Automatic annotation (TrEMBL):
GO terms for cellular component: plasma membrane. It comes from Streptomyces nanshensis. Residues 41-466 form the Amino acid permease/ SLC12A domain. Residues 1-11 have a biased composition (Basic and acidic residues). Keywords: Amino-acid transport, Cell membrane, Membrane, Transmembrane, Transmembrane helix, Transport. The chain crosses the membrane at residues 43-62, 68-87, 107-129, 149-170, 182-203, 223-247, 268-286, 298-323, 355-375, 381-405, 426-446, 452-471. The keyword 4Fe-4S does not apply. Belongs to the amino acid-polyamine-organocation (APC) superfamily. Amino acid transporter (AAT) (TC 2.A.3.1) family. The keyword rRNA processing does not apply. It comes from the Bacteria. It is found in: Cell membrane. This is Proline-specific permease. One of its GO terms (biological process) is amino acid transport.
Length: 492
């Protein structure tokens, strides 16, 4: 049965279902082609946490916190692991492409599903702008005469074309993008360790782990400086939840998704903590500058200009990978909203290859706003969009945690089937993670560069509330399905 013929719970339109009935009735294919295999899912999961935030944003964070940035990544990484385990438990309860938007709709109510779907769509549109901005910045390394907006436009058009072929092509692109990133980071770590232990290269005479505390201490800017980097740190981890969107197109989601979630701890330990520890042991934190990739700066210090060019190519692929993921996820999220009566009906359609063409096209068109931003403010474009991407992306994490708390409560009472992949320390870890995200939002208010997102977020929220009630007044039955699914089952 095509997903257009049923509502989001697999029941006929207007029929009330309990969450347990919904879990059993959800259409397994949702109209998509299950073209993402285990190899691709694993690399999408790995690559999702390696992007612009690490390769470019970390340079600014180092100047604010010094070596203590490593601790910030470790703490935030622990929270990310709890978030992903919460998502993993929900995915094994009911793997659907709508992912956390579906779970918010089921466990928190129709408005939260509506708000989550549209906010996550906005997040990826804004992130796409962020990443294409970063990619255009990297091109300046080789061709400084090429305007940033020209590079941004070319990248946007190329990735849009790639997303119109098939989901398998998307998976292959992400596989090789991620392979380049992973190989490069591991190679850089090995070279850095060699410089520290064997003393070769121009940096061999000064490279030492003592650089982590010798230039002003481990907290050279104080604890406050470290706390103020948490917004940048959390931005680095945005997109780790993308693996949840692939559930509807994974060949074997109940096997591949838990395996992907389990890789989160070592991904964070190796790619963030390990890489930054090596870089800051090769180059003193005082030598970094905002807007400059710490990886490029490290190779330049070592005296390998070719190595710096290679790293610049790697970070370019990282940015393009994230933008590619944005085009993939926005089309799916718009279709999920349309199938639930919370978005324009034309977004329901799929091509013969199982692709949401209209949703992807509209999202790509909006991403071209990044071209205009690069034209108007080439030096400030990255800072402007990072802050808003962070606040909108963290909303998805909040919904994952809140839905997980509600799900676990129902499962513990025997009202819903238990997931085959239970999250550890639940629900306490989910509550603690919510508190951490709340603290990050408060800290953003003290940072002039981040504060702009707190101005825009209430405007977006108000727009969502108005849109929700207008839609509900126009067609009261639109949200009946979400309301039925969101109710907690009553005890017999």
């Amino acid at each position: 049965m095509a997903s257009e013929q049923v509502d989001d719970r697999g029941a006929p339109r207007g029929g009330a279902t309990t969450p347990s009935e919904a879990a059993a009735a959800v259409p397994p294919e949702e109209g998509y082609h299950r073209g993402l295999g285990s190899r691709q899912i694993q690399m999408i999961a790995i690559g999702g946490a390696i992007g612009t935030g690490l390769f470019l944003g970390a340079g600014k964070a180092i100047t604010k916190a010094g070596p203590s940035l490593i601790l910030a990544y470790a703490v935030a990484g622990t929270v990310i692991w709890f978030i992903m385990r919460a998502l993993g438990e929900l995915l094994l309860y009911r793997p659907v492409s709508g992912s956390f938007s579906e779970y918010a709709r089921e466990f928190l109510g129709p408005f939260f599903g509506f708000a989550t779907g549209w906010t996550y769509w906005l997040f990826w549109v804004v992130t796409g702008i962020t990443e294409v901005t970063a990619a255009a910045t990297y091109v300046q390394y080789w061709w400084p005469a090429v305007p940033q907006w020209v590079s941004a436009l070319v990248f946007t058009l190329v990735l849009y074309g790639a997303n119109l072929i098939s989901v398998r092509i998307f998976g292959e692109l992400e596989f090789w993008f991620s392979m380049v990133k992973v190989t490069a980071i591991i190679g850089m770590i090995l070279i850095g360790v060699g410089v520290i232990t064997l003393g070769f290269s121009d940096a061999g005479g000064t490279a030492s782990v003592s650089l982590l505390w010798s230039d002003g201490g481990f907290f050279p800017e104080g604890l406050g400086g470290t706390l103020m980097t948490l917004q940048i740190v959390m931005f680095s981890f945005l997109a780790v939840e993308l693996v949840g969107i692939t559930a509807g197109e994974s060949v074997n989601p109940r096997k591949t998704l838990p395996r992907a979630v389990r890789t989160v701890p070592w991904r964070i330990a190796l790619f963030y903590i390990g890489a930054l520890t090596v870089i800051l042991s090769v180059v003193s934190w005082t030598e970094f500058e905002p807007g400059t990739s710490p990886f490029v700066a490290a190779f330049a210090k070592i005296g390998l200009p070719a190595g710096a060019a290679v790293v610049n190519f790697v970070v370019l692929t990282a940015a393009l990978s994230s933008c590619n993921s944005g085009m993939y996820s926005t089309g799916r999220m718009l279709r999920d909203l349309a199938l639930n009566g919370q978005g324009p009906r034309p977004f329901r359609g799929l091509t013969g290859n199982g692709l949401p063409l209209l949703g992807t096209s509209v999202s790509a068109a909006l991403m071209t706003v990044g071209v205009w931003i690069n034209y108007q403010w080439p030096s400030k474009a990255f800072d402007y969009v990072v802050a808003f991407a962070t606040i909108s992306g963290m909303w998805a994490w909040v919904m994952i945690l809140a839905a997980h708390i509600r799900y676990r409560r129902a499962a513990d009472r025997g009202l819903l089937p238990r997931s085959a992949f239970p999250a550890p320390c639940a629900p306490y870890a989910s509550w603690a993670s919510l508190g951490f995200i709340g603290a990050v939002v408060v800290l953003m208010g003290f940072d002039p560069d981040s504060r702009v997102s707190l101005y825009g977020a209430p405007v977006w929220a108000a727009g969502l509330v108005v849109a929700y009630f207008v839609l509900k007044a126009r067609d009261p039955g639109t949200f009946v399905r979400g309301e039925a699914g969101a109710e907690q089952p009553r005890e017999p």
